Amino acid sequence: MNLSLVYAHKGETRTIRVNPFRLLWLGFLLALLLSSIGLWGVQQYRDLAQQQARLISQLDSLQAEPKLHQFEQQLRERYRGLALRVGQMQVEMTRLNALGARLVEDSELAAEFDFSHTPPIGGPMMDIDSSRERDSHLLFGLYQLEQQLGKNKKSLTALESWQQSLHLLDNSFISGWPAKGPGIWISSPFGSRLDPFTQRLSVHNGVDIAGKEGTAIYAVGSGVVVWAGTRSGYGNFVEIAHGNGMVTRYGHAKAVLVKEGDVVNKGDEIALMGSTGRSTGPHVHFEVLKNGRPLNPSKFIYRKASA
Prior knowledge:
Glucose Permease (Domain IIA)
């Protein structure tokens, strides 16, 4: 069976005969082609969508990685700082324990403080649930420990200063001979005498202790050197302040072994006996003053070593 299509064009009539089966087959092929194109387009869209999702996921990962690295770095820095603080506190604890032990060794505090044992503490246990709260309490605990260490350090330092001041006060107690050994003797006493150069009556504010040149001269009490050098009439001269207005002087030395500002202990060698200045021979001119007033040094030379 054929279909005829008749149409007129410029006064002419034309007829086209079409086989309907061929027309149906052509339509089927056209529909199949369109369907294939549509399916291919859908598949391409899905592939593109999946690729886009993967790219977005990768982009998110790339963006999140620096943040994660930064967070890890901050966490490391935080715990490194905590470790440093704990280490510093351990050092301070060791130092304070040693200081405390040393302080109680030579005092009446030994019965009250025992640094060899952990101090007794107690109380009910309270669990902390969340790790965030644990971290918060850890930091707060470290802060409290640091503050307590600071207070203990100040207290022990004050106690140490107090003990040292008592020790210095005890050692600054003036007594004994400024020179020792064979051939040591008092060649000129304290008070009125004839001046060895003018032979006129004069006042002698110290005692002269004779000996061999180069004999060691010792501090008769702990204190601070306030003069170390030459002084008119005294030659090479050392003056020591012992506190509470007490001062000792040592004159005519061959050599001075200390300098101004030095802290000396009782019995320290401070000079060598000589005959410098206004002197007739090797000896040490020894003076003791209280608030600038000369005292008889003989009382301190023969004084007992403790008050």
